Amino acid sequence: MADPRVEAAIANWAPRFVAQGVDYNDFLSTTSRIERWEEWLDAWSETADRHFEQGAEAEAVSHRLTAGEAYVRAALCYHFAKFVWMLDAGKHRAAADRAVESLYAAHAMLDLSAQRLEIPFEAGLMVANLRRPQWVELPPLVLLIPGLDSTKEEFFNWENVFLSRGMATLSLDGPGQGETGYSTSIRPDYEVAVTAALEGLDARDDIDVDHVGAVGVSLGGYYVTRAAAFEPRLRAVTAIGGPFDLGSAWRGLPPLTKETFMIHSGSGDEREAHEKAASLSLEGVASSISQPLLVVFGKLDRLIPWEQAERLAAEAPDATLVMYEEGNHACNNIPYRYRPLVGDWMADQLKGAGSSP
Q: What is the pTM of this model?
């Protein structure tokens, strides 16, 4: 009998794997050999190892493109090995470290301008990846904010949507996310992370810090809209598949998602996690979002009710709602529809920034 946790992971997130760049054949071959949830991380790590080895072999003979593409695939597979797998903290951390290593190996092959940033944040540091389009002298910047179980290591192909349109990207691991999450927990006031990131970039002369937008996916959709209400330096914001009120959606969330939230929020049990989830609400906040806001949602979302997107669009003063009837959570089953839309919309909002050399 199939493990319901394995079935749930496949049912809820298969389109996301493929949209982010996991080869569909890898997805089929890897998941087909997993019978129990306990086997998930090891199976995906084995797939990642093969891609990393291919990358190393190609790098050794100076086939940089082949090497870089293999390293990106390795980073994604290591990331998805551990993304909602919370059974062993040591193995989770090891897979996460391998994802980071693989992505930086990819940067060395594919984008030498990419930079790892360590940004002062309260008593510690936030970690982010900055990439710039080489053909724009002073590009506008788009902050890319992950969700509950995503990290900057998932975003290489997502970043390219904006880079190809002349915008720089900063993929941020904020509180409770990725490397920053090793010393922080999820918090409702995500604007403190955005403010710290903007202050960390303020002195740079290779991006236009006066033209900054932000895009958040899944729980990141809540984070960016919350940040926009308190951070006027954000000129435009896009929320993709984000909740208006996570607490009210709690009962309908998959058990794996609840467990992941419990860990990343530093909760002792599910009851405490639910209480913390209830603090992630735009109640009384959405009306303060003065920036242009694009809300993208799929009506077939199995995690967050589509009515929450309608509420956000109704309460934010300058919001546009795009509801895809066939879209799933974060519309990952139709990336060819929402990604160009978001990229073009953000480029239009930040137009006038940047100059070609």
A: 0.96
Residues forming beta bridges with residue 214, ordered by sequence position: 143, 237
Instruction: Give me the mean pLDDT over the 126-154 stretch.
Output: 97
Q: Are 282 and 319 in contact (CB under 8 A)?
A: no
Helical spans, DSSP H, in the chain: 4-20, 24-32, 40-60, 64-82, 89-110, 156-163, 191-201, 219-230, 246-249, 255-264, 270-278, 306-315, 335-349
The domains of the chain, with CATH numbers, are 1-110 (1.20.1440.110), 114-357 (3.40.50.1820)
* Residues forming beta bridges with residue 298, ordered by sequence position: 324
The token pair at 205 is 């002369």
How are beta strands 208-217 and 140-145 bridged, if at all? parallel
Q: Which of 162, 322, 294, 199 is nearest to 238 (CA)?
A: 294
**pLDDT higher than 80, residue 114:** yes
- For residues 263 and 257, give the distance between their C-alpha atoms in angstroms, rounded to a whole number: 10
Which tokens go with 221?
A: 């959709």
Residue 357 pLDDT: 36
What are the tens digits of pLDDT across the range 317-336? 999 999 999 999 999 999 99
As a whole number of angstroms, the distance between CA 86 and CA 255 comes to 12
